[in-house]
Amino acid sequence: MKRIKNNISIRLRLTLWYSSVLSLTLLLFGMLVYVFLRQMLVSEIDTSIAGRAKKVVQSITIIGPFDFPLQQIILPDIDVFASPNTYLQVIDAHGVLKASSHNLGRQAFPLGASTMKKASQGNAFYETVYSGEQPLRIYNLPLILGGKFIGVLQVGQSLVAIETPLSRLRFILFTGSGVTVVLAGTLGWLLARTALRPIDEITKTASAIQEAHDLNRRIKYDGPGDELARLAETINAMLERLNFAYQKLDQSYRSQKRFLADASHELRTPLTIIRGNIELLQQMGDAEPEIRTEALADISEESRRMSWLVEDLLSLARADAGQKMSEELVSLRELLADVIHRAEKLAGPVNLEATNIFVSEDNYVYGNKEYLAKLILILLDNAFKYTEPGGSVLLKTELADKEACIAVIDTGTGIAEENLEQIFERFYRIDQSRGSRGTGLGLSIARWIAEQHDARIEVKSTLGQGSEFTVRLPLHENIKN
């Protein structure tokens, strides 16, 4: 049963609901019209026979002594009222018929015990009785003589005169309602098909998008700004978000593949060197001390290189996982002093200079001290690598607009302007500006650290003259430990 219900189209359900509501409305309206009209016609008959009963009472002739009332009654001629469907009869207190109008002939109104009981109470009343299959409306008027109930005058009129038009009215109401429901249902079906045609177009377009996997396609709707227009707009917005999400997912997938390929390549090179040197040592033994020392130095160097690479990959994996680093109030002066101490060991043949690094002790930033140090060291390490021996690298600090501006300026090879936007991508290298020892991960890690601290990195570079990387860190308002 549930399956059949689910297979009914919206168009058919709308038509059925519309037809059902219309049928119920017409049925209620027809019943109200019929009941109101019948009540009105019966009320007119009641008024008519009540008036005639009063005239009849005034015209009744009673013959006989007072002690024997209703011994003989002469009723007026019924034709006086020009109504052949009106009948009269008089019943005494014992329920015996004493007189009746000529148009009744030998017949009499049906008389029940309840009729005499109500009449004996002295109140006039109406009732509907049946003589055979003919309905009669009777007005019962008690006859009181000398304060004593002596009988009841019954004035009746046939209801056939109103039943016939009422029967025709019922036929017209039911037939007309049926025809109206059929016509309205047909018209409702056509209107529903017209109203729902845009939904069919939307469905076809959505199916075409699904089959073609074309998320760039959109639903076209030229109708008024109604619910269907809002539906089309909502679906188009959803497709826009899906397309954006799909592109991001595809980009992430491609980046992941490139990341794995580059990481595998970076790890393969030192592993190959290490394995080659180990095999050389195994074959040579202690025969060539100088070659043995050189091979061990290569193994040590490549091991350190692998350690750096694995550490960088771990940092990027944490970044991709959305890991939040612990934060605390960090003294800018202590941070820079620590960075200078560690950077002196990386400088090598490059001259390291520092300007205004010993800032006031009242200047603090909020973040992770180790990661902030790593951020600055990455920039310094890059500057050392891409600066020729004898060149210089300057670490400069300035405070402005509630920011600490930490700049690393080198006199190295520089970066072409068209490559500036790509240098923060993972494993991205420029032959003219990157040395052979770099993994292409440092600046990606630096950007992630900066983003975690609500900071930004700005780059200015001139090819052949050097580069300037500036980190802008927000200062913390609470300057006290």
From TrEMBL:
It is an enzyme of class 2 (transferase). Pfam families: HAMP (PF00672), HATPase_c (PF02518), HisKA (PF00512). The keyword Isomerase does not apply. It is found in: Membrane. CDD domains: HAMP, HATPase, HisKA. Residues 262-477 form the Histidine kinase domain. It catalyses: ATP + protein L-histidine = ADP + protein N-phospho-L-histidine. Its EC number is 2.7.13.3. InterPro entries: HAMP_dom (IPR003660), HATPase_C_sf (IPR036890), HATPase_dom (IPR003594), His_kinase_dom (IPR005467), HisK_dim/P_dom (IPR003661), HisK_dim/P_sf (IPR036097), Sig_transdc_His_kin-like_C (IPR004358), TCS_sensor_his_kinase (IPR050428). The keyword Kinase applies. GO terms for molecular function: phosphorelay sensor kinase activity. Residues 193-247 form the HAMP domain. Keywords: Kinase, Membrane, Phosphoprotein, Transferase, Transmembrane, Transmembrane helix, Two-component regulatory system. The chain crosses the membrane at residues 16-37, 171-192. GO terms for cellular component: plasma membrane. This is histidine kinase. It comes from Desulfofarcimen acetoxidans (strain ATCC 49208 / DSM 771 / KCTC 5769 / VKM B-1644 / 5575) (Desulfotomaculum acetoxidans).
